[in-house]
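Tutorial handout. Part one gives the primary structure; part two gives the three-dimensional structure as tokens.
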Amino acid sequence: MKISEIISIYSEKLTGISPTPRLDVEVLISHILKFDDKIKLILSHDNEMSDNDFLEFENMFNKRLKSVPVAYIINNKEFMGHDFYVDENVLIPRPDTEIIVEDVIDTIFDKYNNAEELNVMDMCVGSGAILLSIASSMSDYSSDFFYRCKFVGVDISKGALNVSNINLERILGNISNYGNIQLLESDLFKSPEFDNMHDMFDIIVSNPPYIPEADIQTLSPDVKDYEPILALSGGNDGMNFYKEIILESSKYLKNNGLLFFESGHDQADEIKSFMKTNGFVDIYLKKDLQGFNRLVCGKLRK
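Part two.
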């Protein structure tokens, strides 16, 4: 069967199950045929797919028919120009989160460019998408500056940390062995290792679980049935992790240290208010492409 015919027939089969049926089919085909851009796929439309490749495609497609996310099927998600390994141990990185990463990077270049050291923590690190994108940007900018930085990623999930370790080598390669990136298993700040981290961090960034428990079942099947509940549920009102991180971070941030959050689409004002009453100043918000306040950042004043 020609590739163009496969795209047409299988996109139709996926209609009503996926909001992006044709794109999903094209991504699966491109993954199997190792096409790294859409031009190669377009130029191959009249080519026949081999029996072995077609069998692999059908196996993957049948998973998508059951609403398994494409990123889990191909174990890959592009984020900030990098290909991250993902599986069902971690939340799939979203484009909205790039706003947080970009703001952290801009802040580092603006405020910390000449710093003798820079310590950054990602609380609820998951796949490592946020932390490793920041670290990669520092490395691309200046190896000397990168080696003056320390990066700490924290997660309660062993499975998530395994994924982060895979991405550490994938994104940073040989420099991942330098020793300035630490991945730590901990329920937020509860690990004894935090006893030695008081007043240590210039920046803490977090995309914590923030979906209210009652809303979990209203999510699309590819989210609620496959993405880890541990990375989704933020308690009754979705604010549990925000509040605990805000309260505990004051022990580990330096004076004038910055706390960055990704916010749920309607939670930014409540996060801002809680930060304001717990020692944070100069708080600002930034909107995502849909117009929702997605980023909240404040400075800790001790």
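Part three, for discussion. The chain has a mean pLDDT of 95. The CA atoms of residues 247 and 278 lie 7 Å apart.
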